[in-house]
Design a protein that fits this description.
Length: about 130
């Protein structure tokens, strides 16, 4: 008769993944926000855009600040979608001849935000879903 080995205690790998994903979300969020502000100020200084353009570009990210502070799982899923929209916006700008290192950096930061927000969403798992 062979005995089964004792089951290993659960590890905190999901907790570590969650912490790493959360840190990556914050980094990507702040980098994208900074790039959008820098890009808006540059366009404003070059008389290519109004001051309202800066607000319009940065406002969606600023509205997600409570989601990040309160660690809302569903909000991170929406933040993934917003990151993809910023990525698409960069693609449209590049397609219209606006290729610049700043636009490429914004696209990379938006892609990083989308991926890291989705990873945070996945790391939280179904254990935090509310029952209806």
């Amino acid at each position: 008769m062979s005995e089964r080995p004792a089951a290993e205690p659960p590890t905190d790998a999901s907790s570590d993944a969650s912490i790493k994903a959360r840190r990556n979300v914050w980094v990507a969020y702040l980098v994208l926000l900074a790039l959008l502000i820098i890009g808006g100020l540059w366009r404003y200084s070059q008389a290519h855009a109004e001051a309202a353009a800066l607000v319009v570009r940065a406002l969606p990210l600023v509205l997600f600040l409570p989601t990040l502070l309160l660690r809302r799982r569903r909000g991170h899923l929406w933040l993934t979608a917003v990151g993809l929209l910023y990525l698409a916006q960069g693609g449209v700008i590049m397609a219209n001849g606006g290729v610049s290192p700043l636009v490429i950096a914004e696209m990379l930061a938006a892609a990083a935000l989308a991926v890291s927000a989705f990873r945070y969403f996945r790391s939280q798992g179904p254990h935090q879903r509310r029952s209806s």
